[in-house]
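Hey,

The postdoc asked me to send both predictions to you directly instead of through the lab channel. I've kept everything plain text so nothing gets mangled by the mail client. Protein one:
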Amino acid sequence: MRQSLFLCTAAIGTVTVSLCILTFFAIIVLNVQQMTKHWSREVQVVAYLDEVPSKKSLNALIREAEMLDEVEEVVFISRKQAYDDFRQRLGDDVILLEGLEDDFLPASLKLSLKEDHRTREGVERVVKHLRTKKTFSDFRYGQDWLERFESFVGLIKMAGLILGGFLLFATLFIVANTIKLTVYARRDELEIMALVGATSAFIKIPFLIEGAIQGAFGGLLALGFSFTLYSLFLQRGLETLLLASGVEQVVFLPQYFQIMVVVTGVLLGVLGSMFSLRKFVRI
């Protein structure tokens, strides 16, 4: 590395810039996924009761609903509570309720689903079970909204996979070509080693180790630069965009993802060195 310090620095810089772009992309995708996760809490099933059963029957009904694999929590909404909630939602238009009794709205059970079951299939399984009970007169679970939500989440995942794969491939291409320059600058050294009988592994291993070290440095520098730029600019921009959508906080990469960035840098360095050496070392 000391013999071609400029090219080694260029290789580390290339890995750093490439991984910075990947890191920014990952931060945006992770925070958008947080937003969709927050929205998924709205996936609920409301089962309206034709008549409010006795307390014993109601408790049995709630326990049975809680036993379903998909259900996380069941809350009973009385007629009075439904009326109060409706009044609160009307705000300044509460005058529209004048003259109406406070029990004209039906009582209901509100079922929140577990995170893994907040899908159209999970909702339909719960509704199918509840329909077997004659106690319920109607159900509301926002089928249209649920379909649009699933389409949006699917689009986000697809875009993440395509763009992430494209960025990773482009990064590997750029890093490989940069490392190729460092190998090309030392082609005389490679030829001499081959002429004196050095084996392919003996020639390649130092370059692979060098590529791994460059990639590790690049990964660590990418994390440092990404965190600095995130703190200075990106965090504020994402907060402006996402906090209004209900996301509680904007986050940087979790710890396991930071480790993945460094490991990706090492892999890029090793793969880039391997691709570059194929042209110069044919033993």
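Protein two:
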Amino acid sequence: MTLKLDRIFYPRPRRLQAVVAASSLALLAAQPPATAAADELRGTGDLGVVIERASGRVAVVDTSAREVLERIEGLGDLSHASVKFARDGRFAFIFGRDGGLSRVDLLSGEITHRIIQSGNSIGGAISQDGSLVAVANYEPGGVRVFDSQTLEPVAEFPALYEDKNGEEQRSRVVGLVDAPGNRFVYSLFDAGEIRVADMNREPGAAPPENGKAAFDVTRFTDIGKKPYDALIGPDGRYYIAGLFGEDGLAMLDLWHPEDGVKRILPDYGRGEARLPVYKMPHLEGWTMAGRQAFFPAVGRHEVLVADTADWSLADRIAVHGQPIFVMSRPDKRQLWVNFAHPDNDVVQVIDTEKREVVATLSPGEAVLHMEFSPKGEQVWVSARDSNRVTVYDTRTLEEIARLESESPSGIFFTHRAHRIGL
């Protein structure tokens, strides 16, 4: 079912100091530059960051030299933190679990801006034109949007819905991504909805009399129970939400939103005993190779293969444990898969043509994330409890470097700045 909301009005951006005075947002003092890494002229295309969650800091890394350049501290609670990059590849936006949003200069090592924008957040997105950064929040449930240069607030979309008793509630928001057309798409875990926020304004339009800017939000209700995460394909057409409360996945075709949300892989898991879920998989790592799309199965020792012609289940690939990330090498020939506890000391490599596991590697204890270099000749793997990041040659599958890192989790390279949904 598709509903169109009335236009929603939000205050236009004002100077940050005035906004803070008028709201509960807490602006934290910008930190002084950590180092003078920008002394020499250089690009940022081979830079990235590694989240060091236990210390509330990130390590800025050089993927060509395979070394840590510097560390930036003072970023708050970085458990489950994620990162997006400005389109110039110089600035990184760090989304902390404590509601913190930080803008970091990779060249100077400076935190240029930092705010606490909610009590509990779960990632974010950068708009297609690079001007806006959005944050998905658990507490209070909703999406908040900020100017990417100043972190001044631009809009807020409360995730309001009516529960079964007819009472208004706010849902936790998950699966926030950017989409073509300068839109943000996200899912409401508690309400079972997908919503699309159109961040375009009428060219030259004068603001309403009360000095507020307007954005439209479209609701897609009854998509399924408990969407826990979502992804958008590399071309920005399909938005797919994983469902924890029932079988299958919910798919929205953004080329034809008027068709509503459809259920895909509806028979996946049907009639089978559910296994304990040790950690929810992340759908960011989906991949498409030709007509094949690969997904981590919830609570099962399987990677699912869907035929994108009709989104039917084409195959199941047995793997070592419950998959968390299923990530593709940029040429789509390999999938690298990590797993939930207690099998999280292993990474497996799948040949997408043969649909079979071709290697099992042991990068360390508690493998949390993987990231490919822009053209995929190497992959970096974080092992939290071994306090290291291991770099593999993806052709030979041999270890080629090892970096010491305190409790590393997410790894994010700047080439994500130019990919939809990343």
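Summary for protein two, as requested: Residues 59 and 188 are 32 Å apart (CA to CA).

Thanks,
C.
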